């Protein structure tokens, strides 16, 4: 039970009302004891927390940036896409809110169950089509009379956008979206039951001088297996792990390319200046390296391996026998 703490001004006002007779102490007590009831609409069941909705918003903010880049390249025109809102509503309410004839793209998202719906306002869809056909991007709403060529061009444009969708969700789950249906009448699409909760991500879209909305409809059945992954804790942890693994890979790659100096001494000795001055042809200088003992291979002047000399492809070489352990390098 959460107790409400009153400020000093509120306490003074309450005492003044009681003393002046404006409020009866017994009525106040009775009012506080009454159970407060809040109306709950089971048709609008809230199945996602605010934290999870915020995570979905972040994912689709990234998706909006990727779509902006993709459509800008495909249409060679000014494109701006941003997240306008993220809401959870019954599927029936979403169907009633979109035009009776519009552009609908149904994507399967294996290994997740169910399908994701992308609804594109006809004004936006035809502006895209006009740009593809060499026009200025003007919008003519004739969604009811699409030709086969227009249908194919439009479906191919949205089918390629699946790559952006997959990349935007890669921080949460890896899936490969596939465009299964291209439709213009919402009544022909039965994704889920009318009362099923869906998340609607509305993207404010501008193509040239034409503006409209792109709505992404994600049913609860699609998100149910990955709902725990939408928490802030998972989001931060996964991003940290991803950054750590990327940094480790970059450091490892850089170290593998680093060059080191490797050298082996056959032996060494010390002689005096007088001996050096009196050296003659065929004189023999004895080294301190016994012939039956292995040589040392030094890496950057540090002894690292025991080796034995030999030849490899008519070149002088050494064969590694064992690694030298020094002090705390035993681990």
Automatic annotation (TrEMBL):
SUPFAM superfamilies for this protein: CheC-like (SSF103039), Surface presentation of antigens (SPOA) (SSF101801)
Keywords, alphabetical: Bacterial flagellum, Cell membrane, Cell projection, Chemotaxis, Cilium, Coiled coil, Flagellar rotation, Flagellum, Membrane
Domain Flagellar motor switch protein FliN-like C-terminal: 254-323
Molecular function (Gene Ontology), one example: cytoskeletal motor activity
Database matches in CDD domains: FliM (cd17908)
Cellular localization per UniProt: Bacterial flagellum basal body; Cell membrane
Annotated Gene Ontology cellular component terms: bacterial-type flagellum basal body; plasma membrane
Pfam families linked: FliM (PF02154), FliMN_C (PF01052)
Keyword Metal-binding: no
Gene3D superfamilies assigned to the protein according to its UniProt record, in alphabetical order: CheC-like (3.40.1550.10), SpoA-like (2.30.330.10)
Topology of the protein relative to the lipid bilayer: Peripheral membrane protein
Keyword field contains Magnesium: no
Coiled-coil ranges per UniProt: 11-45
GO BP: any one term: positive chemotaxis
Predominant location: other
Entries under PANTHER family matching the protein: FLAGELLAR MOTOR SWITCH PROTEIN FLIM (PTHR30034), YOP PROTEINS TRANSLOCATION PROTEIN Q (PTHR30034:SF6)
Family: Belongs to the FliM family.
Protein name per its UniProtKB record: Flagellar motor switch protein FliM
Native species: Lentibacillus halodurans
């Amino acid at each position: 039970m959460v107790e409400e703490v009153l400020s000093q001004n509120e306490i003074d006002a309450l005492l003044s009302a009681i003393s002046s007779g404006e409020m009866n102490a017994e009525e106040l007590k009775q009012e506080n004891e009454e159970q407060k009831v809040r109306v709950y609409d089971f048709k609008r069941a809230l199945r996602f927390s605010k934290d999870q909705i915020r995570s979905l918003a972040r994912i689709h903010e990234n998706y909006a940036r990727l779509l902006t880049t993709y459509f800008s390249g495909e249409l060679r025109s000014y494109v701006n896409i941003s997240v306008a809102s993220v809401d959870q509503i019954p599927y029936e309410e979403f169907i009633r809110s979109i035009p009776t004839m519009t552009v609908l793209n149904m994507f399967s998202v294996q290994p997740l169950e169910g399908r994701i719906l992308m609804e594109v306002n006809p004004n936006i869809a035809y502006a895209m089509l006009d740009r593809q056909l060499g026009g200025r991007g003007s919008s003519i709403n004739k969604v009811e009379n699409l030709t086969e060529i227009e249908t194919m061009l439009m479906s191919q444009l949205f089918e390629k956008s699946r790559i952006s969708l997959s990349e935007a969700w890669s921080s949460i789950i890896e899936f490969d979206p596939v465009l299964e249906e291209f439709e213009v009448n919402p009544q022909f699409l039965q994704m889920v039951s009318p009362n099923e909760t869906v998340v609607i991500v509305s993207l404010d879209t501008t193509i040239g001088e034409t503006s409209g909305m792109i709505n992404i409809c994600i049913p609860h059945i699609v998100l149910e297996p990955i709902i725990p992954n939408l928490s802030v804790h998972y989001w931060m942890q996964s991003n940290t792990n991803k950054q750590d693994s990327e940094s480790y890979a970059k450091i490892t790659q850089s170290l593998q390319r680093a060059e080191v100096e490797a050298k082996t001494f056959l032996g060494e000795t010390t002689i005096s200046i007088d001996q050096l001055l009196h050296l003659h042809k065929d004189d023999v200088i004895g080294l301190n390296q016994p012939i039956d003992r292995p040589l040392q291979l030094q890496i950057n002047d540090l002894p690292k391996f025991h080796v034995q000399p030999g030849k490899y492809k008519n070149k002088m070489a050494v064969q590694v026998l064992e690694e030298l352990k020094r002090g705390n390098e035993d681990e």
